[in-house]
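Appendix B, example 12.
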Amino acid sequence: MVKKKKDENIEIKPEELLADNWINTPYSYIEKIEQSKNGKILSLMQQSILIKVSEKLQNQINAYYQNEKNKGNQELSLFKEEELIGMAPIRIKLSELGIGTSNYGDINNAIDEIEKMQLRVLSDDKKIISRIPLFGRLDIPVTPKGYQLAKGKDIVTYNRSAGWIDVTLNYESTKHLFNMSKGYIKHVALIAQNSKKANTPDLYFFLKRNTYKSEVFHATAMRLRDVLGMIKYSDDGEIEEMAYPKFSQFYKQVILKVQGDIERMAQLNQVDITFTCTPVYLNDRPQKGEPDYLEFVVKPTQLGIAKKEKDNAKKNIKVREVVEEGIGDRWTALRQQTVSSPVTANPVIVNSEIIEKSKKPSKQEVYKERWGGIVAQYDCIIGKEQISRSVFVKFEKQHYLIRCSPEDKQFIDEHYQIINDEIARLSIGEPVSGFETRLIEIQ
């Protein structure tokens, strides 16, 4: 059992957590780890190690999303193979995990389980399943103590004074773990270290990635069991084992326990969301047994609200800069032209649009113009073609509403988070929460 720090229940002010306690983890990393568990519930120590790997790669992850995509980057993996060959191992100190050297044996047990985790990748022709280790190598410093003849191996003890582990990435798994096309999840970095229930981090990530468009979403109990690593599958996809097959026990022992754990962290300003979960039974079914689905309602905590306000403040700074230097100059020029010329009802043509000199553009006209600017500047390979074909409808409730074809809508929905982040980055004017798609019939 890992000893917790004495100050684990000290309340932390939101502003103290806003600076450097948030990280961006690629969606694919979380998804592939989820799939590789295959019936195993990871310990909090194991999850802390896996999250720490993502945290150690923040410079590369943020550089990819902030820079490379604006250059029309064609590489979907975070690293090229040649980059990994010369890359040093990722060193994780025990102190970064909140673990003392006296718990080194626990670290070894945790790594033993991580070493067993594999990605199962189906070949393009769907004829071969490849089992690929999650990481290339995991190293722990030891001190030699001699040789044990009976077992035919060297005797070692763990070097407690070193206090670190090294993680070496493997390209074959990394190209799946860090497939950047699916976007990322911004989350509290210490979610695993602050949790007391092993299922809390996984359910937290599940909530975060399903509520980027709405605070309410539905999922089946089987889907949730799968996410939490409670279902073991055979190679042909058949269920071999399942933890908590009885829903009443699953709800009480897992969902409600995690809900209480997250509520505890919320009181300490250690997490940005809380949730409620309601089993839903359709068609007047009795309120017992496996429900038709679970309804999750996710709400921001004091920390989550503070984080959003800080992010919006940063956007407003960028907004002012863009308005002063960018598309806003066009309206300034038009106003100057109106002042210097006699007022007339006759229109002038500017960039093929008719604008009456005496008429101030409406709010919707301004946002239509701004949407045109976003489309012109949108240079991310993911969604570029689809956004370029979109048609502005209106702007309301801090959302751009656009029309697009059913095919484009499907693509945008599948890659919504990364496209939405790019649009928010390019947006000018009022803070923008995102955009929504509306279908038009194919003529």
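The first strand starts at residue 22 and ends at 26. The chain has three domains: 7-21+190-325, 23-182, 362-443.
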